[in-house]
Amino acid sequence: MKQCITSDKLPQAIGPYSQIVVSSGFMFLSGQIPLDPATGNLVEGGIEKQTRTVLNAIKTALQERHLDMSDVVKVTAYLTGPGTFAAFNTVYAGYFTNDPPVRTTVFVSALPKGAQVELDVIAALGS
């Protein structure tokens, strides 16, 4: 069974997709870019600030389902260039301190609204 969930605490979807889908014991969170949930505008300030914004949005989505970052089992990271990787990794490491999830990092030529980072996650329910 698939349950599609919308959260008013997250930036609204900018396309025809669900923000969150819960199915088969997992929560799938669509790609999050650093948007201010109140305005929908891109958060400026470099890769560190944008990464914190995205990870905080992920924490919010997890908390709404009574989960936390330790429940995340898979992350896919999209970065706009290898020059941002070290700074991204430093911020990212602060959110996943014990037993981090598996991760794939992909360098892309562009992201929506000019973002430097996008993350999507899969979290285990009831872990």
List the topology elements:
Layout (H helix, E strand, L loop, with lengths): L1 E4 L14 E4 L2 E7 L13 H19 L7 E8 L5 H9 L8 E6 L9 E8 L3
Parallel strand pairs: 4-5
Antiparallel strand pairs: 1-2, 2-3, 3-6, 4-6
Describe the protein in words:
- The chain is α+β, with helices and mostly antiparallel strands and 127 residues long.
- Strands 1-2-3-6-4-5 form a 6-stranded mixed sheet, covered by helices on one side.
- Strand 4, helix 2 and strand 5 form a beta-alpha-beta unit.
- The model has no long low-confidence stretch (mean pLDDT 93).
Summarize this structure briefly.
By secondary structure, the chain is of the alpha+beta class.
Keywords:
single chain, 127 residues, alpha+beta, 60s Ribosomal Protein L30, Chain: A, six-stranded mixed β-sheet, 6 strands, globular
CATH class: Alpha Beta
Strand pairing plus helix content: what structural class?
alpha+beta
Catalogue the unreliable spans: none
Give the amount of beta strand, in percent. 25-35%
Helical amount: 10-25%
Order of strands, main sheet, comes to 1-2-3-6-4-5
Assigned CATH superfamily: RutC-like
Label the overall shape: globular
Radius of gyration, rounded?
Answer: 14 Å
How many structural domains can be distinguished in the coordinates?
Answer: 1
